[in-house]
Amino acid sequence: MKEYVIGFQHVGIPTKDMEASTKFYEAIGFDVMYETIDESNGAKVKFFKQKDLVFEVYESTDVTMTTGSIDHISIDVTDVEKVYEEINKMGMNNLNDEIHFLPFFEKGVRYFIIEGPNKEKIEFNQYV
Length: 128
Hints:
By secondary structure, this protein is α+β, with helices and mostly antiparallel strands. The protein is built from 2 helices and 8 strands. Strands 2-3-4-1-5-8-7-6 form an 8-stranded mixed beta sheet, with helices on one face. 18% of the residues are buried.
């Protein structure tokens, strides 16, 4: 697995109020690096960046509004298919997820998600 991991990709944070989230993250020094609409559900999605720290903030009706409401952490990988194969070999695809594509950024991203031992979601992400 180590040969495929490039580094940290982003933290996924659901929001009920994109305007308030945008004002907050911009006030603490983040810039909007990318924004789109998730065509599967019509939700607004924004990626905020400050240096090498990236937050993906997306609209959701399932926001808990409690401590611990971060949805997932994402890891950059060089080859999402190879990582998917390794995760399956180790029996760690406990969500039975498949590789997905989203038309985010210039050419899109491919990713899949597993669940860690504390119910945390780990996303393996590759820019296309």
